[in-house]
């Protein structure tokens, strides 16, 4: 796996900067090897997909990438550094994520949800906010303004005042993206961003992800929807039973018979099940 | 009529006192789902902190009772209360964060007894400080204590004004803090979903400390208000006040700040009105606690989520 500049078939130039590099990551739970010696690299301005049938170790691997799990062996480097131990520090380092099951703050407005995402980038201590100094007021105004910009960016202009729990499903997904972007990430991890979406919402999600990629962020997507992932991703890593089955461009992975076999199952191997 | 207004003001000032303490229960519960039963003692410690501040100031001023003593006493009381609460959180509750719910509950009772006995046994041992084994008269500060004020023929205790003003100011401040500052938004976020908050870059431990500190500061103000209103303080005053305030928090809907205020005022009014207007054997001051807890039982039976009805922690 090279980190030099390569030109993808799409003509999109990637590899300007290595954002995330996982080397020989293995995760064992007792006797079970959930992730077995997986390598993975993400560059800035690149969308990388992570696919695999159920039980392939996607989620475990994802949790290793986000620092929720410490790999049994191997290491994950983010921006050249080993991930810090606390989730909060991972966010501060520049990694943000959305969730497979929407996890917004239901009783806060959309705008407030995004403003919470800004929290780790503001210096306001509780005490200085009590004193209500000019620095506090400036920071508060900036936070509000930036949050409103982000809502507009994800296509939710003018909806900042609605409580998150009252928003339509597609908007809740977009709001999660806006909240993640509010933390000023270098890398955005999307956990099944189109789960439960209709085709139109999926298309909008795709446009949004392209837009974010074009702004220079690195993006990792876990997804079951194969058509979505092959449209979207510059590169795809396919995990099967904890191991890397294949890693390559979307076209390469899509046409690999082993991927189809892993998902649909060949006549001799029925256990994979259909998940595409 | 004058009697009714008297009872109304009595009820409101008592209720405001409960409300100020109840906010501390509710804020902490909203963030960590912990009933901090030592919170009543924080109220007591706040009052003693203010008294100590006045005594120490007295060494320089010769026991001045000028009005400017009051803000200094408030700050002193709040500092002592906040410090106690933060140390308590750090060393007694944080190590039990992931323990079964019963463990911090028992710890809270232990801290409560520890703080009471600490004041009872050691306060008088400090040179220049009065013995705390019995009630101590609270310093009479010019302007804040003294003769009742005549408002259109109605005599009103100055302490009543003090307590109600304290509640209004604290409530407004709290509303602003929770809704209009980054820290307040983070508190709301943690109360709604601590795990996600952590993954969104919020230092949950810090938010918990802030919740304890805010509750303690308000309890300290209540402690001073108690001293001003009732004229004396003692080491066990936190027990019943804490229990009543907890009742008030549940009454209003625990986890909900407005609920704590509404619950506190309701409880105070019910106590005062029941004591004055229920005739015969079950009336009178001796029965007021009974009616207070009867109200709690009725609420728990018919509206277990409390008056303001948020089943989960709602917008504060």
What are the key terms here?
heterodimer, A: alpha/beta, Rossmann fold, four-stranded antiparallel beta sheet, 12 strands, B: 316 residues, mainly alpha, ABC transporter involved in vitamin B12 uptake, BtuC, globular, nucleotide-binding (chain A), L-isoleucine transmembrane transporter activity (chain A)
Helix and strand layout, with pairings?
The complex is a heterodimer of chains A (about 280) and B (about 325).
Chain A (H helix, E strand, L loop, with lengths): L5 E2 L5 E2 L3 E12 L2 E12 L3 E5 L6 H8 L7 E6 L2 E2 L4 H7 L1 E3 L12 H9 L7 H6 L2 H20 L15 H13 L5 E5 L7 H16 L3 E5 L3 H7 L2 E6 L2 E7 H5 L2 H8 L12
Helix pairs in contact in A: 3-5, 3-6, 5-6
Chain B lengths: L1 H31 L6 H23 L7 H25 L8 H21 L13 E2 L11 E3 L2 E3 L1 H23 L1 H11 L1 H6 L4 H27 L1 E2 L3 H16 L4 H21 L10 H15 L14
Antiparallel strand pairs in B: 1-4, 2-3
């Amino acid at each position: 796996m090279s980190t030099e500049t390569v030109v993808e078939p799409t003509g999109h130039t990637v590899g300007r900067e290595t954002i995330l590099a996982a080397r020989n990551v293995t995760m064992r739970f007792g006797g079970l090897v959930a992730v077995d010696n997986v390598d993975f690299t993400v560059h800035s301005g690149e969308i990388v997909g992570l696919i695999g049938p159920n039980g392939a170790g996607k989620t475990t691997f994802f949790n290793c990438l986000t620092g929720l799990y410490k790999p049994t062996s191997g290491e994950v480097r983010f921006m050249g550094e080993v991930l810090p131990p606390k989730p909060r520090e991972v966010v501060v380092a520049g990694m943000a994520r959305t969730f497979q099951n929407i996890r917004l703050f239901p009783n806060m407005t959309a705008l407030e949800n995004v403003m919470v995402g800004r929290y780790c980038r503001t210096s306001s201590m509780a005490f200085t906010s009590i004193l209500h100094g000019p620095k506090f007021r400036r920071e508060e105004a900036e936070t509000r303004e930036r949050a409103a910009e982000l809502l507009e960016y994800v296509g939710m202009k003018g909806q900042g005042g609605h409580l998150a729990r009252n928003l339509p499903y597609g908007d809740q997904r977009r709001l999660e993206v806006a909240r993640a972007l509010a933390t000023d990430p270098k890398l955005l991890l999307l956990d099944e961003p189109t789960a439960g979406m209709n085709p139109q919402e999926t298309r909008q999600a795709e446009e949004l992800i392209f837009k974010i990629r074009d702004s220079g962020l690195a993006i990792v997507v876990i997804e079951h929807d194969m058509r979505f992932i092959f449209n979207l991703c510059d590169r795809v890593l396919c995990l099967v039973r904890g191991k890397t089955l294949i890693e390559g461009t979307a076209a390469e992975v899509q046409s690999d018979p082993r991927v189809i076999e892993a998902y649909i199952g060949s006549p001799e191997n029925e256990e994979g099940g259909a998940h595409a | 009529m004058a009697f009714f207004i008297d009872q109304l003001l009595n009820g409101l000032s008592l209720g405001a006192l409960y409300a100020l303490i109840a906010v501390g229960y509710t804020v902490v519960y909203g963030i960590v789902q912990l009933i901090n039963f030592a919170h009543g003692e924080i109220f007591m410690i706040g009052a003693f902190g203010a008294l100590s501040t006045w005594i120490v100031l007295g060494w320089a001023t010769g026991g001045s009772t000028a009005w400017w003593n009051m803000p200094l006493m408030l700050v002193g009381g709040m500092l002592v209360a906040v410090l106690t609460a933060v140390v308590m959180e750090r060393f007694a509750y944080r190590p039990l964060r992931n323990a079964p719910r019963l463990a911090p509950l028992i710890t809270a009772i232990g801290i409560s007894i520890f703080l009471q006995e600490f004041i009872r046994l050691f306060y008088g041992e400090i040179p220049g400080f009065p013995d705390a084994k019995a009630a101590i008269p609270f310093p009479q500060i010019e302007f804040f204590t003294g003769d009742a004020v005549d408002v259109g023929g109605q005599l009103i205790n100055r302490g009543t004004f003090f307590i109600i003003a304290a509640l209004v100011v604290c409530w407004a401040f709290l509303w602003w803090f929770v809704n209009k500052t980054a820290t307040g938004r983070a508190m709301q976020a943690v109360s709604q979903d601590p795990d996600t908050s952590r993954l969104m870059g919020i230092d949950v431990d810090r938010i918990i400390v802030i919740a304890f500190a805010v509750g303690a500061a308000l309890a300290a103000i209540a402690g001073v208000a108690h001293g001003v209103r009732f004229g004396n303080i003692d080491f066990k005053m936190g027990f019943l006040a804490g229990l009543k305030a907890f009742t008030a928090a549940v009454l209003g809907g625990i986890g909900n700040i407005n609920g704590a205020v509404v619950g506190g005022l309701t409880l105070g009014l019910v106590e005062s009105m029941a004591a004055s207007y229920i005739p015969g054997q079950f009336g009178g001051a001796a029965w007021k606690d009974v009616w207070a807890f009867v109200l709690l039982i009725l609420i728990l039976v018919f509206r277990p989520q409390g008056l303001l009805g948020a089943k989960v922690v709602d917008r504060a």
